[in-house]
Amino acid sequence: MDTAPSNYPAAIFLAKPSPGLFANKDEVLANLGKEQTCLINGLSEEQHLGTGGSEYGRPGRIANSLNVPAGDLHDPETHAYLPAKRLAQKFSDVGADAAEKIITYCGGGIAASNDAFILSISARKCSSLRCFNVRMGI
For residue 60, what pLDDT is reported? Predict the structure, then answer.
């Protein structure tokens, strides 16, 4: 890894909304219990089980959701993402492989976005990948 300063040419970044990346409350409710949909909670296992950590309105999880903690996607020493095969295995271990549609969620959007990012760059693709922010209800 190079640690020397890098120089990049000036550029203009134009941010554009991507509403298709986010699920709202109605979409989550409509997909509960659907066999082809996988709902993944990105919060810690303790938060998922309702036994510890921050609460977002109430402890626990959305019924029947799976748990892939966003914090478990990084090496604890380097804070870099784990190797691709280990990341893929974390989602495979909870049964996300068979889902046509995946909705990641958490309390504020950060953990869910982390899970969704890893899924979006993985070799395994689903027909729909969306994030749901419980706190905002969007």
Answer: 83
Q: Which are the contacts of 30, defined by CB distance < 8 A and separation ≥ 6?
A: none
With CA atoms as reference, report the closest residue to 90 among 109, 111, 125, 66. Answer: 66
Residue 118 corresponds to which amino acid? I
Query: What is the DSSP-derived secondary structure letter of residue 109?
Result: S
What is the value of pTM for the model shown?
0.84
Of residues 19 and 34, more confidently modeled:
34
For residue 107, the Cα-to-chain-centroid distance in whole angstroms is 11
Range of the domain at 55: 20-133
> What H or E segment, with its residue span, contains residue 46?
helix 45-49
Give bridge partners of residue 7 from the DSSP assignment.
none
pLDDT tier for residue 128 given thresholds of 50, 70 and 90: confident
Query: Hunting for tokens 């969306």 — which residue is that?
Result: 130
Closest listed residue to residue 64, CA positions, set 39, 97, 44, 42:
39
Q: Tell me whether residue 58 is in a domain.
A: yes
| Rounded Cα gap, residues 65 and 59, in angstroms | 14
CATH, residue 95: 3.40.250.10
User: Count of domains in the chain?
Assistant: 1
